[in-house]
Amino acid sequence: MVTITKLPTYCYQCVCGPDLLKVVVKDGVPVGVEPNFDFADKHPAGGRVCVKAYGLVQKMYNPRRVKQPMVRGNKRKGLGEEPRWTPVSWEEALDLVADKLLDIRRKGLVDGAGYPRLAVTLGGAGTPQAYFGTLNAFFAAWGPIDFSLGSGQGVKCYHTEHLFGEYWHRAFIVAHDTPYTRLVISFGHNDNAAGGVTGVWRNAEARAAGMKWVQVEPHLSVTGATADEWVPIKPKTDAAFLYAMLHTVLHELGWEKVCDIDFLKNRTNSPYLIGPNGYYLRDPSTHKPLLWDAASGSAKTFDDKTIHNPALYGEFTVRKAVEIGPDKEVIEHSDVAGKTAFTKLVEHMKSCTPEWAGPICDVNPSTIRRLAKEFVDNAMVGATVTIDGVKMPLRPVAILLGKTVTNGWGAYQAVWARTVLQSLVGAIEVPGSILGVTIRLNRPMFDRLESVRIGEDGFMAQSLNPTDSERWEAVPRVRNAYKTLSPLVLDSSWSQALGPAHLPWLFMKHAPENWPAPTPPDVWMIYRTNPLISSWDPDLVAECLKDFPFIAAFAYTHDETNWFADVLLPDNVDLESYQLYRVGGTSYQEQFWEYTGVAIRQPVAQPPYNTMDLTDIATELADRTGLLREYNEAINNGVLGFRLKTPLYDYSLDPERKYRSYDIWDRLCKAATMSLSNGRHEYGLEWFRKNGAYLIPFKRINWYLHPIIVAKKLRYELPYQEKVMRVGQELGRRLHEHKITWWDKQLEEYKAMPEWDDSPKIFEDLPKVYGKKPEDYPFWLVTSRSMQYSWGANVSIPVIADISKHVMGHDAVMMNEEVGRRLGLKTGDEVFIESPIGRVRGRVLLRKGVRPDTVVALQQFGHWVTPVPKNIDAPNMNRLVPITLETTDGTGSGADLVKVRVEKVRR
Ligand code: SF4
Predict the structure, then answer these.
(1) Nearest Cα to Cα of residue 183 among 150, 151, 216
(2) Interacting residues of 125 by C-beta distance below 8 A, sequence separation 6+
(3) Which of 356, 398, 791, 877 gives 124 a disulfide partner, CB atoms 3.0 to 4.6 angstroms apart?
(4) Chain-centre distance for alpha carbon 542
(5) In what order do the strands lie in the sheet with 579-587?
(6) 528 CB near ligand 1 (under 6 Å)
(7) pLDDT, tens digit, 9 for 90 and up, residues 212-238
(8) Mind telling me which PROSITE patterns this protein's record contains (predicted)?
(9) pLDDT attached to residue 808
(10) Residue 121: inside a domain, yes or no?
(11) Ligand 1 centroid vs 790 CA: distance in angstroms?
(12) DSSP, res 412
């Protein structure tokens, strides 16, 4: 008789999870995947998963996997150097890695240049933590590790939004409050591809209920294709469009009539008075910012309880005040005139008319004007809604930004303008508006609301990296120097990856003046990442890797980066190992739950190959490097999400003992359930293997910051960036004191109110850096996300390749139909795409839905080693994008954008 069981597990192959599923196991063999409808009423997508989860069984049985540990036979490394892999036992492989690590411990954890000798690069925007078992505990036990060698992170994410979103409203990712939103204006935000199963589900429901979606982007993405309207904007001009929307609201529609005046006066820095040097005017004794109380006709500190009517607009004379400049310099004033920050904003936007922006963006000014009006009309200023018994403003409009818009030059302007627009109508962190979904830079990482603490000047506390002369980190302690160059990236466990993570590759080969050149790490570990595909300028990365003395790669298949490795460690994949992971609450992109808790990932059958549970690998490495005690203590102390010992319970590990994966996760399951239930439930691993997840209610009101902002009497630091300006000036002083001037252009970005700076020109002029003519590169090459392939090694799964064939653009470069014909091209023709640094080859697909000046290459192909994708005939734009300081902005990010020419391949 056939036995069928259905084992619950989670998928977190992309950051839009975790989502819950069941694996169908027939007579001990997994044969399929289905939704987990046990959680249909709790999971925001009704217990469903997206198409990628349906490839998990193939992922497990993929015959092209690395099937046992392997060591390199060829001591030389290079693109043309065959590694000559030799299979070894796990004992041999782990001993080899442990020997190299012990060598480091003998020499000292940090090298002569001050950089950690051990470096680790992870891929997939945080998804690795849902798979790497207890590896985090090993890292915690180790000591200093360099996580800053990039594989695309920090530059191919929503970088400026991550930094400023979290700064302004604890929004590492910004999402719309889909169930309430009436209008979304999306600047390249590719929600259908990037929103996960919950995003697609929630948006489909909202669209059916009448939500309007306007997509502003150079090509018609899979999100644009389902939008109500497509506005084909010229690449990288989004900030000009948004500035013109600001102009329309402030100067044409009449801010007095359409803005949320109460919100601006009481929840933003709009009424703060700005002095002649651009800093807040402050009370001379308390140094608190001043505003003007129109009721009493006098200046008062922002928190003065006697203020009746803060003036929003105007210039006022203050008898005595001070400004505080960089390095706490106090500038004293008598009878000084101060304009409100809002007045400054209105003046700042005066010249940014739709007629000004229209030619920049190649969009009819009437479209910009109309969308600005639709935005304020749909904001419903004055409307309220009751959530969990609390009356809240309802502001159902959201402007969303996509990658490239939020990355590189021009991103600060775009992110600032978007958030200011939202603030004008009070549409931040209230129902229907833009919401932050998670935090990654502030703490505690799993409680966004808790991270809102009272800080200086009426705003939430910010723990920027110091720029004062005593505490500024003059000598970088990791290779991307995030604390030295990027104050806004903070110093959490994610900050290294969000610094300028592409710069180590550049600086290893071309160190700038007066800078400690990054050294190759003694040991580089890589997990779920392939920088030779996902980073720009792979040839530069390859040059660097040749000098890396020892690379340990956790390997699923052979790939372009582990081609350079010394040892391949094939760890168990998604359906082969244990892990307990947090689910629910709010997380990106649209994981808004009314429950929170934990879910299990579990083996659904015996692994088919000689692979190993990563928890067991981590335990072995800890044991062999003499770190078992520290490793077990890290687990006891909660590095896996829950402490193993509290006054309620004690499941702690004996620090001197080695535990198997099952034992560790069993204890975690018990600790998590005891902790979440406040001692009422103790469920171990066996319970989770049957039930899948343990959830407790999470109130919907917790989706919004508004109640806590009001309760703590805080304001959003908008529209005026006084602190950012001051921090930039301090950073400039520090760098100049050390004779570093190559970051000067980046320092210009630290503006209280950024101007439109013609950022497209930076990309248009790039050919000149290489002695080439800009006019020879007439097309913008942009990229778009493949929902089917992104992350999770899905590019190696045949069933995903089959599915992807049905989605346009997966095997071709997309180009405007008319323009292609003029070039003598037809769909299917082979073309060269050439930038100033390289040339790739691919087939062209002619479409109407692409601007005439734009070509589109979906991310990220161009493999030459990885089985399966090496047969996909699609190019990788990364080969055409240089890593340069010229294209790196002040936050340390760049954009997936390069000017190219396109030519037919002639035989
Ligand atoms: S959206 Fe992401 S996490 Fe969810 S099922 Fe799909 S791949 Fe997995």
Answers:
(1) 216
(2) 15, 153, 157, 791
(3) 791
(4) 25
(5) 579-587, 591-601, 693-697
(6) no
(7) 999 999 999 999 999 999 999 999 999
(8) 4FE4S_MOW_BIS_MGD
(9) 86
(10) no
(11) 10
(12) H
Q: What separation in Å is there between the alpha carbon of 16 and the centre of ligand 1?
A: 6
Nearest to 423 by CA among 227, 269, 199: 269
pLDDT at residue 859, rounded to an integer: 78
Radius of gyration of the chain (CA): 27
- Best residue among 15, 19, 794 to mutate for probing ligand 1's pocket (most ligand atoms within 8 Å of CB) is 19
**pLDDT tens digits, residue range 47-68?**
999 999 999 999 999 999 999 9
* Dist. CA 19 → ligand 1 center (Å): 6
383 within 8 A of 393, measured Cβ to Cβ = yes
Q: Tell me how far the alpha carbon of residue 541 lies from the centroid of ligand 1, in angstroms.
A: 30
What residues contact residue 238 under an 8 Å CB cut-off, 6+ apart? Answer: 187, 188, 216, 361, 401, 405, 410, 414
Residues listed for the chain: 907
**Pair type for strands 118-122 and 212-216:** unpaired
| From 16, 36, 190, 587, mutation site for ligand 1 pocket: most ligand atoms within 8 A of C-beta | 16
Is 460 domain-assigned? no
Ligand 1 nearest-atom number relative to CA 12:
3
- Picking from 436, 462, 478, the residue at the C-terminal end of a domain is 436
- The reply to whether ligand 1 has any atom less than 6 angstroms from the CB of 321 is no
Q: How confident is the model at residue 793 (pLDDT cuts 50, 70, 90)?
A: confident
Q: How many structural domains comprise the chain?
A: 2
| pLDDT beyond 80 at 109 | yes
Q: Which of 270, 256, 239 is nearest to 762 (CA)?
A: 239
CATH of the domain at 811: 2.40.40.20
Q: Answer yes or no: is the C-beta of 49 below 6 A from any ligand 1 atom.
A: yes
Asked if the structure places residue 147 within a domain, the reply is no
* pLDDT digits 0-9 by tens, 658-698: 999 999 999 999 999 999 999 999 999 999 999 999 999 99
Q: Which two tokens stand for residue 445?
A: 């990482």
Instruction: Show which of 436, 468, 485 is a domain's final residue.
Output: 436
Looking at the domain assignment, is residue 767 inside a domain?
Answer: yes
Residue 196 Cβ inside 6 Å of ligand 1? The answer reads yes
Average pLDDT of span 590-598: 96
Residue 746 C-alpha to ligand 1 middle, in angstroms?
Answer: 36
Q: In CATH, what number is assigned to the domain containing residue 292?
A: 3.40.228.10
| CA 12 – CA 21 distance, rounded (Å) | 11
